[in-house]
Amino acid sequence: MIIGAGALGTGSAEMLVRAGIGKITLADRDYVEWSNLQRQQLYTEEEAEQRTPKAVAAKRRLSAINAEVDIRSHVMDVSVEEMERLIEGVDLILDASDNFDIRMVINDISQKYSIPWIYSACVGSYGISYTILPGETPCLNCLLEEVPMGGITCDTVGIISPAVQMVLSFQISEALKILVEDRLHLRNKLVSFDLWKNHQSTIKVDMLKKADCLSCGAERSYPYLSFSNQTKTAVLCGRDTVQIRPSQRLDRDLESLDKILSKRKGEVKRNPYLLSFSTSNHRLVVFKDGRVLIHGTKSIAEAKTLYHRYLG
Amino acid sequence: MILTVNGDQVEIPEAIETITELLQHFKLYDKVIIVEKNGEILEKAKHSESLISDKDSIELVHFVGGG
After folding, report:
1. Which ipTM was obtained for this model?
2. What whole-number percentage of chain A has pLDDT above 90?
3. Which of residues 80-139 of A touch B (CB under 8 A)?
4. H-run or E-run covering A25
5. What is the pLDDT of residue A237?
6. What pLDDT, on the 0 to 100 scale, is given for residue A147?
7. I need a surface site. Which of A13, A137, A199, B53 has the fewest CB within 10 A?
């Protein structure tokens, strides 16, 4: 199962479908946009023009590549409930998402059902990947200690497609090893690279596995599957606005955000309490406590896309 | 002081003594990061007390969200 059908999702789906995988499930909440075409390899200009949902466009192209593969594709904003529904019969989860909210859910689902997953991400010329095996390796919750918040995204600093392809090579090589049950040859290390700076690191992180981890430890409670730890969204009646409230109260650094967003097309205004960023169609108002109002839409899916695009 | 950071030799000011100060020097303090010094992972709680010295080999891996 692949969560997300952006750069990593389209690349990994194409590799696996060409390899003749039996069944693949793909879920994405977004539609194709022009800016996607530089790296999201299953999509065309026509689909950007028509704003075709990515899950629909991806399935069409993947079926044309290999008609024998059973492709289940969902236009869906995946969270806990959806993951619980989709997980049955899944051998491996590939992370192709763009945010840590869903990654923490994937991590807990993986532990709950004892299904391996591969964390992968990239931005700029940098990429990172780690294969998580329940009962063996540390989980993402062990590694992170705290959930990364904000910072750079593919839409704020860009991404070169070789970085995508490099992460895909790491991710799908590991996926193939898991799918053919050759665990002996798994990398067992956290890999990261920067293609522009000519860096690569592989480090062994086994010692970061925590016996008291709430996601994978003995007294586990799967915290990211509980309602209180999920990002909350609400459509504000009559205001053409969606409010997004992170699960934890934050102290967002509005000055750093100002610097990042000032490089984007749009207007940034800031006072000590909030920052407002206007694009041609939407306005994002970011409060210091982490709350964000997205003006110009009533769609929660669209609001989440904008939230993760500009705020990480 | 000369360190090997992610495979590259870099010169850093002598005033930098700990991993925490090194992360500040590289402007990585606001990132979720895993630090390996001479082949050993350093837990975050130990960053401020872990001293660095000449010829140390440091690997810095930070988590990103894009995809």
Report:
1. 0.90
2. 72
3. 95-100, 103, 120-123, 126-128
4. strand A23-28
5. 67
6. 72
7. B53
Task: Let me know if residue B12 belongs to a domain.
Answer: yes
Q: Which helix (H) or strand (E) holds A85?
A: helix A80-86
Look at B36 and A203 and tell me if their CB atoms are within 8 Å. Answer: yes
Per-residue pLDDT band for A59 (boundaries 50, 70, 90) equals very high
Q: Which domains does chain A have, with CATH numbers?
A: 2-225 (3.40.50.720), 231-311 (3.30.310)
Q: Does residue B42 form part of some domain?
A: yes
- Smallest Cβ distance to B66: which of A143, A159, A203? A159
Type of residue found at A143: L
Domain of B32, CATH number, reads 3.10.20.30
More confident residue, A246 or A185: A185
| pLDDT for the residue A287 | 86
- Between residues A249 and B37, which one has the greater pLDDT? B37
- The more confident residue out of A154 and A216 is A216
Residue B22 lies in a domain: yes
| B12 three-state secondary structure | coil
The answer to whether the CB of B52 falls within 8 A of the CB of B58 is yes
Residues of B in contact with A128 (CB under 8 A): 61-64
Nearest Cα neighbor of A117 from A31, A10, A4 is A4
The nearest CA of chain B is from the CA of A179 a distance in Å of 22
Residues in B touching A251 (Cβ below 8 Å): none
How many folded domains does chain B comprise? 1
Give CA separation, A212 vs A23, A110, A142, A209, B44, in Å.
36, 17, 9, 9, 16
Mean pLDDT of A288-311: 90
User: What pLDDT is recorded for position A112?
Assistant: 98
Q: How confident is the model at residue A109 (pLDDT cuts 50, 70, 90)?
A: very high
The crossing angle, in degrees rounded to 10, of helices A7-18 and A54-65 is 20
Burial A236-275 (b: 16+ CB within 10 A, else e): eeeeebbbbbbbeeeebebeebeebbeeeebebebeeebb
3-state secondary structure of A234: strand
Q: What number of other Cβ atoms are within 10 A of residue A187's Cβ?
A: 15
Query: First CA to last CA across chain A, in angstroms?
Result: 23
